[in-house]
Amino acid sequence: AQKVTQAQTEISVVEKEDVTLDCVYETRDTTYYLFWYKQPPSGELVFLIRRNSFDEQNEISGRYSWNFQKSTSSFNFTITASQVVDSAVYFCALSEANTGFQKLVFGTGTRLLVSP
Amino acid sequence: DAGVIQSPRHEVTEMGQEVTLRCKPISGHDYLFWYRQTMMRGLELLIYFNNNVPIDDSGMPEDRFSAKMPNASFSTLKIQPSEPRDSAVYFCASSERLAWKVDTQYFGPGTRLTVL
């Protein structure tokens, strides 16, 4: 069963628009970690954020913000005032206590296209 | 600090040839991971090591794939013989275990493998 679902395959926005990337996860563990990674056109995977299951505080980093809601098993990512440089594929991932937190399970990714 | 280093960045080979991908983890990291990324299957974990010892190789597709970590600063992923369906981007990642919690996996730039 897929444990991380990113239902949005591709999103297109115009620069300066706000955009939210959805991530829904499934786990039986009470202790787990959630991650977001960015894969720009150059291909590397860039770590953006890690959140553990006990910390539901939302986080803001510049134009990026994350909303973690255990009640809906979601960890959504919002980019405010998007820029062309935000164009990339964004992956949500999960690691669980039952694997010693070492196995990252990735979603299928959401491709974000920001046009000028 | 240098990040995870992978070589080569691109590899083109013919079916049946042996392919060796190389990875140097971040200094001080005691976990090393090999992933494969394809359009069809997304990002999948192949194998991971802890302190140079393979812990879980359940993701290795078949006997043609093998991975070694002879020391803390070097790992190889070998495919012999290679087949066209092995064409993918192979990522190496490393992380550091801190007490009971997991640290983040940091990814290398990837090796794009094309098997003709």
SSE topology:
The complex is a heterodimer of chains A (116) and B (116).
Chain A: E1 4-5, E2 10-14, E3 19-21, E4 24-25, E5 32-39, E6 46-52, E7 59-61, E8 64-69, E9 74-79, E10 88-96, E11 105-106, E12 110-115
Parallel strand pairs in A: 2-12
Antiparallel strand pairs in A: 1-4, 3-9, 5-6, 5-10, 7-8, 8-9, 10-11, 10-12
Chain B: E1 5-7, E2 10-13, E3 19-24, E4 31-38, E5 42-50, E6 53-56, E7 65-71, E8 74-79, E9 88-95, E10 97-98, E11 101-102, E12 106-107, E13 111-115
Parallel strand pairs in B: 2-13
Antiparallel strand pairs in B: 1-3, 3-8, 4-5, 4-9, 5-6, 7-8, 9-12, 9-13, 10-11
Can you give me a brief rundown of this structure?
The complex is a heterodimer of chains A (116) and B (116). Chain A has 116 residues and is an all-beta fold. Chain A has no helices and twelve strands.
Fold and architecture overview:
The complex is a heterodimer of chains A (116) and B (116). Chain A is mainly beta and 116 residues long. Chain A is 0% helix and 51% strand. Chain A is built from no helices and twelve strands. Chain A has strands at 4-5, 10-14, 19-21, 24-25, 32-39, 46-52, 59-61, 64-69, 74-79, 88-96, 105-106, 110-115. In chain A, the strands form three sheets. In chain A, strands 2, 5, 6, 10, 11 and 12 form a six-stranded mixed β-sheet that branches. In chain A, strands 3-9-8-7 form a four-stranded antiparallel β-sheet, with no helix packed on it. In chain A, strand 7 and strand 8 (64-69) form a beta hairpin. Chain B is mainly β and 116 residues long. Chain B has no helices and 13 strands. In chain B, the strands form three sheets. In chain B, strands 2, 4, 5, 6, 9, 12 and 13 form a seven-stranded mixed β-sheet that branches. In chain B, strands 1-3-8-7 form a four-stranded antiparallel β-sheet, with no helix packed on it. In chain B, strand 4 (31-38) and strand 5 form a beta hairpin. The radius of gyration of chain B is 14 Å and the shape is globular.
